[in-house]
Every structure is written in structure tokens, then in C-alpha cells.
Write a structure and sequence with these properties.
Blueprint: E1 18-20, E2 25-26, H1 28-33, E3 46-50, H2 52-60, E4 62-64, E5 75-77, H3 78-87, E6 93-94, H4 96-101, E7 107-108, H5 110-120, E8 132-134, E9 143-151, E10 154-163, E11 168-175, H6 179-182, E12 185-192, E13 199-206, E14 208-209, H7 214-220, E15 224-227, H8 228-231, E16 235-236, E17 239-248, E18 285-288, E19 295-298, E20 313-316
Parallel strand pairs: 11-14
Antiparallel strand pairs: 1-2, 1-3, 4-5, 6-7, 8-17, 9-10, 10-11, 11-15, 12-13, 12-17, 13-20, 16-17, 18-19
């Protein structure tokens, strides 16, 4: 059923719900606006008595998103609506540059975000078909960089951070929207060493929603992570260059593909190593010679890369 309406604002009731001395109940939004705290229906004093039965009813009711008149069509159980509002693409958004660096006070709709960045922060607009180069980089100094990406008319946030306390570097891509939609996209960080051209690192993972704080993702190391001692091999003349690709993760198909281009010596066809085991470290591969009755043991390569997640793929030639 739908949530009952507040008799004052005619909007769905929200908790907590307080009553006046006569028993009238108002939504929380209307109650906090009362000054003095007088019931607008009967002019009796509002009390601190909660209407627990009505609150329980509201918690089980289906309500429409508060951004319904702006285009959102989602409906949720009332107690789940708070989480949706945080990630609703029709919500009023603050400029992420202001949130991260405190350098911008702009707020507006998602559809206006890209034009705002092009006008006010053109240097923070990145292209998924081009390399991203960051100047004045050192593994001995903390830094934080932020970029806005567009893919399939959708907006993504790219964050790069160096933390000298943890001695780690981080890359994170967040989809501006719901957690469910974010999981339908994967990002790929590609980096080639300027010092050794054949040294490469590739990391692939699912995107996070922008509703999750980037600092929390960094703290849990749930994104691309590289030890600073290794990152130093990819910095040349105080510059680091990498490319960020975004792809769709289609249901029923693997999100992660192996990029190994080595060829099998017998067939001449391209053949990559087997996918990594998420639960066990790779052990030796045992093959039995036909008719010999003995085992020939060969080591499996290459070893897992330096990134924290198994999806990381590291090639060193």
C-alpha cells in the first residue's frame, strides 16, 4: 500500500511522527518547521509523543521518490527510500570538485554537470580514448587528483591518490547513479613505464556508485592499488601517464578478459593463461605423459600482480 499523506503538506508521511495534545500527527518535515510548536490543525501544543503505530505503517508502505516531479519513476518501501535518494540521478548534486578540494560551490542536476566542468574545470575533463598525464608527481608527497569522464552518455568520476603514510597509490572509478547500475560497468587502468617500454600494468574491476565515499573505498583498498615503491618505476620527469577505459559488463558474459597475447607453440594460435583462482593460490600444473606412468610438473605463470585484487594482470617482459 501507499504511505498515508501528511494533513499539512499533503506529501507522504516521514518518520519520526509526533502528535499534538489532541492526537493530530504531522510528518517530520512539517513538525521541524513549526515555530512556535503549535499544531496547525487544532492550535494545540505539539508534544514529544511518537505515533508508533503510524510510523510502523509508514515503514512498510510504498512511496514514490521525492524527485518524482523531476523525472524519477522509482518506488520503494519507505525505509529503503533514504538510500535511493542518496544515489538518485535526479537529485540536486554538488560539484565534486567542491566536495573533494573545497574549490567550487556549484550545485545542479546531473545533466548540467558535464557543461559545468567544461566551463569551470576544463582541465579536470578526461577522455577515455586518451592518456591522462599528471605532472609534479612524487612518491614522497601526498596528492589527490579528480577527473570527470563520459561514456555512453553517462557520467563517471575518476580519482587518483598517493598516500605516503600507507605507501600506496590508488585509482578509483565511480558511476554517478545507483549501485545496481554501477555494477553494469567495469573500468580498466592501463599503464606503461616511461623508463622501460615493455613494463606494463593492467587492472580491471567493477565501478562503484558515487553514493559511496571515495575515501572509504581507498581505506578498504577495494580499488586499483599499487605500492609506491613500484609506482616509482612508472614516473618519469615527475610525470605519470595512464589510460582509463570503461566498458559494459553484460550479464551472462565474463566482465574480465585476459589480455595476454602469447601464442601456443604447437597450434600457432593466441592462447592466454588460465583465469586466476579467487579462493586458492595457483599451484603447479601437472600433466601426464601418455603411456609413461610418470608425472611432469611445470610451474604456472605469470604470478599474480602487485594489485590487491585477483583481477589485476601484470606483464613484465
Amino acid at each position: 500500500m501507499e504511505a498515508p499523506e501528511c494533513p499539512v503538506c499533503i506529501q507522504p508521511m516521514t518518520v519520526p511522527i509526533f502528535q499534538c495534545q489532541s492526537g493530530h500527527s504531522l510528518c517530520n518535515s512539517c513538525t521541524v518547521k513549526l515555530s512556535p510548536p503549535i499544531c496547525p490543525i487544532c492550535r494545540q501544543t505539539m508534544t514529544q509523543m511518537r505515533n508508533w503505530q503510524l510510523e510502523d505503517l509508514v515503514g512498510k508502505a510504498i512511496v514514490a521518490c521525492p524527485n518524482k516531479n523531476k523525472g524519477c519513476v522509482y518506488k520503494y518501501v519507505s525505509k529503503e527510500m533514504e538510500d535511493h535518494v542518496k544515489e538518485c540521478i535526479f537529485r540536486e548534486m554538488d560539484c565534486p570538485m567542491g566536495k573533494v578540494f573545497g574549490t567550487c560551490s556549484w550545485s545542479g542536476k546531473l545533466k548540467e554537470m558535464l557543461n559545468h566542468f567544461k566551463d569551470r574545470h576544463p582541465g579536470n575533463c578526461a577522455n577515455i580514448t586518451s592518456d591522462v598525464t599528471i605532472d609534479n608527481i612524487s612518491v614522497t608527497n601526498d596528492c589527490r587528483h579528480f577527473y570527470l569522464l563520459q561514456f555512453n552518455k553517462q557520467i563517471f568520476y575518476l580519482s587518483f591518490k598517493i598516500d605516503t603514510v600507507q605507501k600506496l597509490g590508488y585509482w578509483l572509478v565511480q558511476y554517478v547513479g545507483t549501485k545496481k547500475a554501477a555494477r553494469q560497468n567495469v573500468y580498466e587502468i592501463q599503464m606503461n613505464s616511461k623508463q622501460h617500454q615493455k613494463r606494463q600494468v593492467t587492472y580491471i574491476d567493477y565501478c562503484f556508485s558515487d553514493s559511496m565515499e571515495a575515501n572509504e573505498v581507498f581505506r578498504q583498498a577495494q580499488c586499483a592499488v599499487m605500492p609506491l615503491i613500484m609506482m616509482g618505476h612508472f614516473i618519469d620527469n615527475s610525470k605519470i601517464t595512464f589510460r582509463c577505459l570503461i566498458k559494459r559488463a553484460f550479464e551472462g558474459k565474463p566482465a574480465f578478459k585476459n589480455n595476454d597475447q602469447s601464442k601456443d607453440s604447437t597450434s600457432g594460435q593466441k592462447k592466454g593463461p588460465p583465469p586466476p583462482n579467487r579462493h586458492k593460490s595457483p599451484g603447479p600444473h601437472v600433466s601426464r605423459a601418455k603411456g609413461s606412468g610418470t608425472n611432469n610438473t611445470q610451474s604456472v605463470g605469470p604470478k599474480p600482480g602487485p594489485f590487491k585484487k585477483q583481477q589485476a594482470h601484470f606483464n613484465k617482459k
